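Quick note —
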Amino acid sequence: MPAISASPIADTDTPQPQKRESFLARKPWAAYLLRRGGYFVVSMFVLVTVAFLLMQLIPGDPARVSAGENASPEAVEARRVELGLDKPVFVQYLSFWKGLFTGDLGESISSRMPVIDVIMQRAPATLEIAWSAVAIALVIAICLGLTFGALTHGDRRPGVDIGFNSITAVIALIPEFLAGILLVYFFAVTLDLLPVAGRGDFASYILPVTALAFGPAAALTRIVRAETLTVLQQDYVRTARARRMSPVRLYGKHVLPNLLTSTLTISGMALGGMIAGTVIVESIFAWPGLGSVIVQSIQEKDYPLVQAIIIFYGAVVLLINLAIDMALILLDPRTALDKS
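Predicted structure written out below.
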């Protein structure tokens, strides 16, 4: 009888080689930043495409506007060829993208200046009041929201609670143009404390920045207070209170960091709306920024300039949201894990 050979038995104690994780798997924050950067690129692509198509759909002939109402048909056609409007739409679209990458956004129909020069001249004035208003609104919202959240949590001080909700609700509903008119009437006309319009010294910034930050600051304060009340109900805060932790350490170490992550996430869209509000505020205060230019360019059917300003405003809003997401990663790296 032939001997039966024993089949080899696998050694279960031998360690199996482990699969090496990729860099993105080991660094979730890097994967999140890469994905978030991809979202930004896609959003910019959509923004540029919409801005281009919007000008294509608006009634009117840019060549006729540029050549003048009394221009001959030959002059209008020559201007159309000069602007590249005689080419197919897809070719115009590719040329538009090429202009964006090379910094050649065309020529303003009304002023005959390069569009990029108009943007470079006017954008700093708009960004000054926009970023100032965003920063002030965030500081006011965090300080007041945290304070009133601490004062009214646990159903304490119902009178303060009612007063806070009533006042902030009314202020949040006041539009920028009405806030600007009221500020001009009281502080510039009645009290003669601040300049009515124009961009000059520090005093000239106070009214436009306040008008821009007024309503959003109240709305964000309500959000911060609601988030503060939510954080104060968490178990780790109750544990810290039971250990007799000082209020400064409690709110600075436990409440504020968790409050900021949720507040910044919600505040992105509100802050983006503040940037769009510069159009109205600049018109009220005769501020030499892009807001007054876009109103004039729409009236004069200055299509290249309108396109460029739309893209500029949209890019600023997207950059604000991108910066907020970056701040969230720095404040709480767990955000990358939650969104991965």
